[in-house]
Amino acid sequence: MLSIQEIVQKDEVKTQLRNVEDAMDGYGLFHPEVASVLNVEDYSLRLQLEEALQKIPLREFLAKSGTTGIGGAAYLVPDAMHMHILGASKLSDKVPQFAAEVVEGWVGGDLKVDIAVRQQETVGTDLKRKWTLQPRPFSSGGTMPSQTVETIQATLTPVSFSVAPRISSDLIEDANFALFEWHLNQAAQQLGYHATDLAISDLKAAADGDGAANTLGATSPSTTATNILDAVAQVGAEFWHPDTMIVTHEAWADNISDVTNAAPAPNIVFPPAAPEYDMKFHVLDTIFSTSSNLFATITTKKFTLVVTLVLDRSAALLCGRKRWMQIENYAEPVADLSGVVISCRQDCVTLYKDACCVITEA
């Protein structure tokens, strides 16, 4: 792995550091799409730089940026800080775990999304399949069949939101970089929570896309494992493959986790959850969430009217983000740290409403 000293000695890096400095001077902000030390043409060098930015603690970049530090290291701080807050936000930003795709960096304000309408294949009056593009047989040498795809359009219109970390000038002047990192982590995590709240709200609302939303009422005041499996069946009956559950700790602890409901049948072994998920429940990668969109009120330290979501994450939701984790009010890489604001822009649309089932407690 490259050291900070080795990084600043690279000729390509020196050019990019000057670009970062010019961009910050001109715009008073930092975002990798504007200028970044990673914008080198040498691919192997870019990988080495990414590794260094991820593995070297932010506090070390800050410590080496003073007058007695390493010349040129100061303008590594913006990239290092951006990489740091991206990593910290992943603890609370669950959107990439349940969105079909997170689209970034398009040109212009809104992004128009064409969604193919699924056509029904029937045998007699029986529904057998739904297709966006139905394969057609053809004979060798014959004309290949064509088909017209009906589409509907959704629009991603990113909503802006930001936080201002409570970083005093004393922390910077006293070189208390460990506490600075803590404040930065808190800010990034709050942004992650808010981004997840917005995405869950859009997923529940199912205001865009093809199909009709699936809903179930819990069969008792508490959501049960049976309700979850009914939702799996319902999404499956729409010809999707339910693979994800978003659930509150309340619903899980209250009844879903009851061993008489949740225990698998004899001789059935379920695989472990992927690393980015909290656990595996039967066939569902599970995300625990405390989003305010998953409950009504809190009474005696318990969520009421809890909502649980079961979905096929490859088809239910599309997320769009622009200038994600942009660092604003930021022209000097160290001196301006006490006044920075971290901003984000996000919008989500549902692709196929019937790829998700909303379970609601009464």
Q: What is the general shape?
A: globular
Name the average pLDDT.
Answer: 92
Helix count equals: 11
What is the string of SSEs from the N terminus onward?
A: HHEHHHHEEEEEEHHEHEHHEEEEEEEE
Provide structural commentary.
The protein is an alpha+beta fold and 362 residues long. The protein has one domain (90-132, 146-362): phage-related protein like fold (Alpha-Beta Complex), CATH 3.90.1690. The protein is 32% helix and 24% strand. The protein has helices at 4-8, 11-27, 43-55, 58-63, 77-89, 95-98, 169-173, 177-205, 225-236, 249-256, 259-262, and strands spanning 29-30, 101-104, 111-116, 119-123, 126-131, 151-156, 159-163, 214-217, 244-247, 279-281, 284-288, 298-299, 302-303, 307-311, 317-328, 341-350, 356-360. The strands form five sheets. Strands 8-17-14-9-11-10 form a six-stranded mixed β-sheet. Strand 10 and strand 11 form a beta hairpin. Helix 5 crosses helix 8. The longest helix is centred in the middle third of the chain and has 29 residues, at 177-205. 38% of the residues are buried.
Q: What are its keywords?
A:
alpha+beta; globular; single chain; 362 residues; phage-related protein like fold
What's the layout of helices and strands?
Elements: H1 4-8, H2 11-27, E1 29-30, H3 43-55, H4 58-63, H5 77-89, H6 95-98, E2 101-104, E3 111-116, E4 119-123, E5 126-131, E6 151-156, E7 159-163, H7 169-173, H8 177-205, E8 214-217, H9 225-236, E9 244-247, H10 249-256, H11 259-262, E10 279-281, E11 284-288, E12 298-299, E13 302-303, E14 307-311, E15 317-328, E16 341-350, E17 356-360
Parallel strand pairs: 2-15, 8-17, 9-11
Antiparallel strand pairs: 1-15, 3-6, 4-5, 7-16, 9-14, 10-11, 12-13, 14-17, 15-16
Helix pairs in contact: 5-8
